[in-house]
Amino acid sequence: GAGVSQTPSNKVTEKGKYVELRCDPISGHTALYWYRQSLGQGPEFLIYFQGTGAADDSGLPNDRFFAVRPEGSVSTLKIQRTERGDSAVYLCASSPERGEQFFGPGTRLTVL
Amino acid sequence: AQSVTQPDIHITVSEGASLELRCNYSYGATPYLFWYVQSPGQGLQLLLKYFSGDTLVQGIKGFEAEFKRSQSSFNLRKPSVHWSDAAEYFCAVGPPGYSSASKIIFGSGTRLSIRP
């Protein structure tokens, strides 16, 4: 079956611009996670959803970052006023009610 | 604070040789433990996990890991590596009572290169 998909695979933007990153989880998975992976580092937790609600957003670095999952399936990570330090690979994962997190291929964000 | 340490940034082994990747964790209680592999251009793939029970855990692709409570370690091993094992390996922890609704804390990774 289809895995977690993320679009776009690559995004290049200019400092100060707004970007949206999309995640399509595995069908039927109730939990969805966003992580950020900087070069040479492990993934760093940002936020996770259980259904439509954000159950833990403690990893969001500041209020420029926001994520939604309005219908409990697709999620969008939104970054306002992008900064060069936001450049990273943004990973999405989903999981069933209880079990393994399945990761997507990521979106590589480059802020010039 | 919870943390995961992978002391080896980069390891090179010869094809056919044995492999051990080190992982140490700091947690208030015994966490759930994971090893993930990330190949270039690929998503993270779970190799194995430890929740409880037998401290020697078997995973996919011939990997195994041993949980040692006294050393707060969860080292990954493989008896004979193949060139296709070249990748980045991440150790990770989840909280006790781990469910799907829990964040995972990752180590910084160990890059494995295979010498022909």
Keywords:
heterodimer; A: 112 residues; mainly beta; seven-stranded mixed beta sheet; 11 strands; 0% helix; B: 116 residues; six-stranded mixed beta sheet; four-stranded antiparallel beta sheet; 12 strands; 50% strand
Q: How is the secondary structure organized here?
A:
The complex is a heterodimer of chains A (112) and B (116).
Chain A: E1 5-7, E2 10-13, E3 19-24, E4 31-37, E5 44-50, E6 53-56, E7 65-68, E8 75-79, E9 88-95, E10 102-103, E11 107-111
Parallel strand pairs in A: 2-11
Antiparallel strand pairs in A: 1-3, 3-8, 4-5, 4-9, 5-6, 7-8, 9-10, 9-11
Chain B: E1 3-5, E2 10-14, E3 19-21, E4 24-26, E5 32-38, E6 44-50, E7 56-58, E8 64-68, E9 73-78, E10 87-94, E11 105-106, E12 110-115
Parallel strand pairs in B: 2-12
Antiparallel strand pairs in B: 1-4, 3-9, 5-6, 5-10, 7-8, 8-9, 10-11, 10-12
Give me the strand/helix succession of chain A. EEEEEEEEEEE
Distance between termini of chain B? 41 Å
- Fraction of helical residues of chain A: under 10%
Report the uncertain regions of chain A. none
Mean pLDDT of chain B: 91
* Overall helicity of chain B: under 10%
Number of strands of chain A: 11
Radius of gyration of chain B: 14 Å
- The number of helices of chain B is 0
Class computed from helices, strands and strand pairing of chain B:
mainly beta
Tally the beta strands of chain B.
12
Low-confidence stretches of chain B: none
The general outline of chain A is: globular
Quickly give the structural class of chain A. Answer: mainly beta
